[in-house]
Amino acid sequence: MTALACYACDPARTRGRRFIQAPAPTRTEYQRDRDRIVHSTAFRRLVYKTQVFLNHEGDLFRTRLTHSLEVAQLGRSIARSLGLNEDLVETIALAHDLGHTPFGHAGQDALNDCMVNHGGFEHNLQSLRVVDHLEERYPEFDGLNLSFETREGILKHCSATHARQLEALEPGGVALRFLQHTQPSLEAQLCNLADEIAYNAHDIDDGVRSGLITLAQLQDVPLFDEHRCQTLHDYPLLQEPVQGRRLLYESIRRMLSRQVYDVIAATQAALDLARPADVDEVRRLPSLVQFGVAMRDSSRTLKAFLLQQLYRHPQVMQTTGQARRVVLDLFAAYQCAPQEMPESHQRRVSQGLAGGAGATDAAALAARVVADYIAGMTDRFAAREHQRLTGLQLLS
Ligand code: MG
To answer: Against a cut of 0.85, is the pTM above it?
Structure first.
C-alpha cells in the first residue's frame, strides 16, 4: 500500500468498536473488518440477490456479490491514486449492499410499504442492522462489532427520523452526521461514487446481454458512444459480428477508465484547494470526492438513459411486479403465522428482541423481525418460500 495522505483514515487512529477488543496481531482494524464481512452469512447471500436482472434470468448477469466486488475494485484503484485507505474502501464496498432485500429495488420498495406504520424499511439502514445486530457469530456480542469508520461508510443515507433514533442509542455515533449535515470520510464518499460508476457500466453490459437495450440505442448516450466510436476507429474489424461482444467490452472498459481518471483529477484538485489537515476536517467540509463538471453531466445523461430504457423496460417491470407480489405475500403470511419462520426469529418476536432503533411496541417489533427475515432472503429462497406458503409459482 502506498503512503496514506494526512486526510485518509488511519486504522491506528480509529474511533474504535462498540465492544472493546484487543488489536489483531497481524491485521489493521480495517483489514479485520473486511475479513469479518467476507466470512459473514449476509455476504454469502449476495451471490443470489438481484442487482437488476433476477437471479434465474441468466448466470452471467451481475448479482449483488459481483457488483460489490466491482465497486471494491474501482474504489481501491481510485483510493491508491489519492493516498486514501484502500483497505477501508474495500471493506465499505464489500459491505455496502448487505442490507438489500431479494429482488433489488422492487423488493425494497415492497418491504418499505409493508413497514409503513412501523418505521419503514431503508436498505442502507438495514446494512447497518446486519453488521450491528443480525449477524450471530460471536459469543460476546450480536453483529460483527465493526469499527466506526466502516459503519460510517455503510450508513450512506439515513432519514432524520431514523438518525434521531440511532443517535439516542449511540450518542455521537454514525447517525450524528445526518443531523449535523456533515460528510463522512473520503473513503466513504469514494465508495458512493464507485458504486455509481460500477452500476452505470455493468448495467450497460447486462442490458445489452439481455437484449433489452441495443448498441444503436446507446448512440444517444455520448459518454458511451464517444468510446464506441474511438474503439471502432482503432479496431474497425470489431464491427463484424464474428467479433462477438469485444466492441461492447472495449467501449465500456474505456468509459470506465475515463471516469476513474476524471474522479482522481477532480478530487485531487478539490483536495488541493481545501487542504484538509485530517479526516475530522474532511467531515466538516463539503463532499470532496467528485466528478469534474462535464463528467457529472455525462454521467447524469447515462443514468437517465438506463432508467428510461432498462429499469423501466416493460419486461423488467413485469418481473419487478411479480417480485413485489412475492414480498407483500410473504410479509402478510409471516405476520399471520410467525411459526412459519425459523425458531430463532420466532424467539426474537416472543422475547422482544428486535435490536436497534425503530421497534417501539410489540406490533412494530414483530413486524421488524418479519422484515429482517425477508430482507435476509436470497431471490430463490424467497420465491420458494412464496410457493410453499401460497401454492403459487411466480418467478421460477
Ligand atoms: Mg451498490
So the answer is: yes
